[in-house]
Design brief:
The strands form four sheets. The protein has an eight-stranded parallel β-sheet with strand order 5-4-3-2-1-14-13-7. The chain has a four-stranded mixed β-sheet with strand order 6-8-10-9. Strands 11-12 form a two-stranded antiparallel ribbon. Helix 14 (379-398) links the parallel strand 13 and strand 14. Helix 6 runs parallel beside helix 9 and helix 9 crosses helix 12 (271-278). The chain is globular, with a radius of gyration of 21 Å. It has helices at residues 16-19, 55-69, 80-83, 93-108, 124-127, 137-152, 165-170, 172-175, 183-204, 226-248, 254-262, 271-278, 339-353, 379-398, 445-455, and strands spanning 9-13, 73-77, 112-118, 158-163, 209-213, 219-221, 285-288, 293-296, 315-316, 320-323, 329-330, 336-337, 357-361, 402-405, 427-429, 441-443. It is an alpha/beta fold. The structure holds 6-O-phosphono-beta-D-galactopyranose (BGP). The site of 6-O-phosphono-beta-D-galactopyranose has 17 residues, from loops.
């Protein structure tokens, strides 16, 4: 039995603000990510996103490296502030040209572009109206979407609306997209923005496919104490399902709405929005997977802690408390490694929504070492990928319709909150936190391994 379908989309991912640099080039207006240095929560001496990996200057070289690995697809994000200049929606033609050229280059190598429309970096001018918390956010996103569909519609077959909408809601302070005062309003406004983009895509590009791209991972109950299972159902609801239910089923579950009410929180939803939300179903589900969560029911002494990052945190009294999983090893950066959880998550998502699935992130952040001879021996990354791809193949044998795998990241880039020292790429970028060096690219051992895997369509795993 073949492990992977014939046209499986093997590739990898990046995002504009973490990869491009060139923040003042080509008419780009400032984004909320441009001037972040270090991370306020951690006080670490880490770089921000001003320079990133200089992909803005080295995009041709970068794409040729992807082509050399044999990529069938490349998932990248378009930077909203490179495209739209102001609240009026004026278009920056230099920005259009940058991505147009990039799309042509991908086409030259037969690489299918998978385009994320918004990956954390909205333009500063959106902050002038209060950012995502203002209901007008969805109108601005719609204006931007229209421009993307108009200019790139003939070159892009797969669109991803919003990267990790759920993480922007749950870990906004770690991601840096704002505080989470009215987090459910933020969630709702993002959901409406996404729905408007899907609706518009249907109208303007009937042949294109569009889907959401949240970060999904199943939750385990720490013990078979029935209250721990209730905690699992609770966390699954606000960690995973609410964001997929709204887009795939068109409405919020009663369970979720009751939870919001019981927490003394609220969000405003108009009748018009309800119609839009119900009228904008996706063609597929893309999701990012790093690690599962394990929970137990809270005890009276537990308090709501600050959220540490995308994979840790969350304590809600009477609801759920995330706890370590004793069966799982951790990365150098403390993220649990759970390949079997990947298969479990794929099955759960497919059972629930019955839509094709595309994996748009998965990977291991590590302190890779560049040797004198230009080699990087990242056997731990190969090990990580082997195990995850093996589990993905088992999920396919279980019956899950997986159409692509684009791990994080194609080439080294700056982590959301841990600087350049937390590397994910198949290609090493020679720079340090504050010393930009020459930004030269070096192929890691995983580069050659992945190339071989793609060549064999994963049969040799
Ligand atoms: C996801 C984001 C990515 C990426 C990745 C790794 O949450 O979509 O942008 O950065 O996580 O996270 P980090 O960079 O924090 O290690």
């Amino acid at each position: 039995m073949k492990k992977f379908p014939k046209d499986f989309l093997w590739g990898a991912s990046t995002s504009a603000y973490q990869f491009e640099g060139g923040i003042n080039e080509g008419g780009k207006v400032p984004s909320i990510m441009d001037n972040k240095e270090g991370h306020p929560k951690y006080g670490k001496d880490i770089t921000g996103f001003k320079d990133a990996s200089h992909h803005y200057y080295k995009w041709k070289e970068d794409i040729s490296l992807m082509a050399e690995m044999g990529f069938k697809s490349y998932r990248f994000s378009i930077s909203w502030p490179r495209i739209i200049k102001n609240l009026e929606g004026d278009v920056n033609m230099d920005g259009i040209k940058f991505y147009d050229d990039l799309l042509d280059e991908l086409k030259k190598y037969g690489i299918e572009p998978i385009v994320t429309m918004f990956h954390f970096d909205y333009p500063d001018f959106v902050s002038e109206i209060g950012g995502i918390q203002n209901a007008r956010f969805s109108n601005l996103f719609e204006i931007y979407s229209k421009v993307l569909f108009e200019y790139f519609g003939d070159k892009v077959n797969y669109w991803l609306t919003i990267n990790e909408l759920n993480i922007m809601v749950l870990s906004s302070s770690a991601i840096g997209t704002g505080d989470d005062v009215s987090k459910w309003q933020v969630m709702h406004n993002l959901n409406v923005a996404q729905a408007k983009a899907i609706r518009l895509c249907r109208k303007m590009l009937p042949k294109a496919k569009i889907g959401p791209a949240p970060n999904i991972a199943v939750t385990y109950a720490k013990t078979c104490d029935p209250t721990d299972y209730t905690a699992k159902l609770n966390l699954d609801q606000i960690r995973n399902w609410v964001y997929l239910d709204i887009v795939c089923r068109g409405s919020y579950s009663k369970n979720f709405l009751n939870f919001v009410k019981a927490s003394g929180e609220n969000f405003v939803m108009t009748e018009e929005e309800k119609v839009i939300l119900n009228d904008s179903k996706p063609d597929f589900i893309a999701f990012n997977y790093y690690s599962t969560a394990t929970v137990s029911m809270t005890k009276s002494e537990d308090i709501q802690k600050d959220k540490a990052d995308q994979q840790k945190g969350i304590v809600i009294p009477g609801f759920a408390k995330m706890v370590p999983n004793e069966f799982l090893e951790k990365t150098q950066f403390g993220w649990e490694i759970d390949p079997i959880g990947f298969r479990n998550t794929l099955r759960d998502v497919y059972d629930r929504y019955q839509l094709p699935i595309m994996i748009t992130e998965n990977g291991i952040g590590a302190r890779d070492v560049l040797n004198e001879d230009g080699t990087i021996h990242d056997d731990y990354r190969i090990e990580y990928y082997k195990k995850h791809i093996e589990q993905m193949s088992l999920a396919i044998q279980d019956g899950v319709d997986v159409i692509g795998y684009m791990p994080w990241s194609a080439i080294d880039l700056v982590s959301t909150h841990e600087g350049i020292s937390k590397r994910y790429g198949f290609v090493y970028v020679d720079r340090d936190e504050f010393d930009l060096k020459d930004m030269n690219r070096y192929k890691k051992d995983s580069f050659f391994w992945y190339k071989e895997l793609i060549k064999n369509n994963g049969e040799n795993i």
